[in-house]
Design goal:
Layout: H1 6-10, E1 19-22, E2 29-33, E3 39-47, E4 50-58, H2 65-80, H3 85-94, H4 98-108, H5 118-136, H6 146-157, E5 163-168, E6 171-175, H7 179-198, H8 224-240, H9 245-257, H10 261-265, E7 272-273, E8 278-281, E9 289-292, H11 295-307, E10 312-313, E11 324-325, H12 345-366, H13 383-395, H14 400-407, H15 412-415, H16 423-440
Antiparallel strand pairs: 1-2, 2-3, 3-4, 5-6, 7-8, 8-9, 10-11
């Protein structure tokens, strides 16, 4: 029989049962013709005295006789080196993709990381779902290289995975890209691979030598004038709509306590220690913690407590029956509608900071300043209120150690981002001392 050619293979017709036409150039290579007419290349070989058949793939554009012969020669060479193509194929089928490794990590990983909070796992899940899986999820985990990870990071930073989709009535799914998200995606992928190494599922971590984007930490500290602008803005919203009181008090508590947004929004009355004037939070980003309360914060909480005093519910009240009191919400900041705690602060804050910015510009104009010379308040984040609390404390002479205690930092290096702020009070001490000495020296 002559050797296989493209023309001879094309002339092969299906029969009542499948058959194989063998090549005379590469022994063991053949074309299998099935009853349906489909054609594929196969390789017959012996392993341990037994015949084995390996399917190399269907005949298609770009994969003809020439390519099949080269592939067959490689497989036969590997066989001489001890690599069985059938066993390699079975191992390939069992190999985990990046998506499968990520799913196992999210499911089984908490067992090796019991101290990692559920909110952090939720963040990881979102990074995998929105960024990692769409870009490299289908790749075999063992085949991912440094270049693949670096390319993924670059694509995320450029917004390739960003989207803004409508998911239902008055609901949207907004996924953002950028360098910060890209760096986070690389970090979570690296943690996943490290877990895979520890559990024997992969043998390398392709993120190890990838240089993550350098993220400049954004620091924004409010001045007393800027705080006053925000205070006036939330007061205006209160006057315009009494329901906005819960929003206004949420902002005030963030300013007066230095707490994180989640700690204030989920605050329950059961966690307020009136006798010791503190909050006893059963959980936070750093675990359970005690937050000291200033007199102004205590006064605000007392006002809300009195305003939320249950009143008799007269609906359906028949004469002679004692009316049932309304149930007080367990939350300090209850939802505007329905049960649960207030959740609309992020949306309302957008309007508050624009209003505060307008107030700041108006005040500057009234003072004879050009409005464009005033730093904008339109980009102030809610977390900047926590930064500002720290800056006011340090400016008042508090040590980094004490500020860290008030903010609930577990590690000293977390508070060190405020270290440069301590230069101002130090300089004030130096100036006061030098003034006295200069007077004594009659300079």
């Amino acid at each position: 029989m002559p050797k296989l050619t493209e023309k001879s293979i094309e002339a092969l017709q299906p029969q009542d049962r499948e058959y194989v036409v063998w090549d005379t150039e590469v022994i063991g290579l053949g074309v299998r013709v099935q009853r349906t007419g489909s054609k594929s290349f196969i390789l017959m070989y012996r392993r341990g005295g037994k015949k084995r058949k390996h399917t190399m793939g269907p005949l298609r554009v770009g994969y003809g006789v020439k390519e099949a012969r080269e592939r067959a020669k490689d497989l036969l060479k590997g066989l001489r080196d001890g690599v069985d193509p059938q066993e390699a194929k079975a191992e390939e089928r069992q190999a985990l993709t990046v998506a499968e490794l990520a799913d196992l990590y999210l499911e089984l990983g908490p067992a090796l990381k019991p101290e990692k909070k559920q909110s952090s796992w939720d963040t990881d899940r979102g990074l995998f779902r929105n960024h990692v899986k769409p870009l490299i999820g289908r790749m075999l985990a063992r085949e991912v290289s440094k270049v693949d990870v670096a390319t993924m990071q670059l694509d995320i930073s450029r917004g390739k995975t960003a989207r803004n989709e409508k998911t239902g009535p008055r609901r949207r799914s907004v996924v953002k890209g950028g360098k910060r998200i890209a760096s986070m995606a690389v970090a979570v992928l690296g943690a996943c691979y490290q877990w895979g190494i520890e559990t024997g599922r992969v043998s390398h971590n392709p993120t190890r030598t990838v240089k993550a984007f350098k993220i400049n930490r954004r620091e924004r500290y409010l001045s007393e004038k800027e705080v006053a602008c925000f205070s006036e803005a939330i007061a205006e919203f209160e006057r315009e709509d009494p329901r906005m009181e819960v929003m206004a008090d949420a902002v005030r508590l963030l300013m007066l306590t230095g707490c994180r947004k989640s700690e204030i929004l989920t605050l329950e009355w059961a966690w307020v220690d009136w006798r010791k004037s503190c909050l006893r939070l059963p959980d936070s980003k750093t675990g359970a913690k005690v937050v000291p309360l200033a007199d102004a914060a205590v006064a605000l909480l007392k006002r809300r407590w009195e305003a939320g005093r249950p009143e008799p519910d007269m609906r359906g009240h028949n004469s002679g029956e004692r009316p049932e009191p309304k149930r007080r919400s367990p939350y300090v900041l209850p939802a505007m509608k329905g049960e649960g705690h207030y959740i609309g602060l992020g949306h309302h804050w957008e309007k508050v900071r624009l209003r505060a910015d307008a107030i700041a510009r108006k005040r500057a104009e009234e003072a004879g300043e050009h409005p464009d010379d005033v730093p904008t308040l339109a980009d102030v984040r809610l977390h900047d209120l926590r930064h500002s609390f720290a800056s006011f404390a340090i400016a008042d002479g508090a040590s980094l150690f004490m500020v860290g205690k008030v903010l609930g930092h577990k590690q000293a290096r977390t508070t060190e981002i405020y270290a440069h702020l301590s230069d101002d009070p130090v300089k004030q001490v130096a100036n006061r001392t030098a003034d006295r000495l200069s007077q004594a020296m009659r300079l």
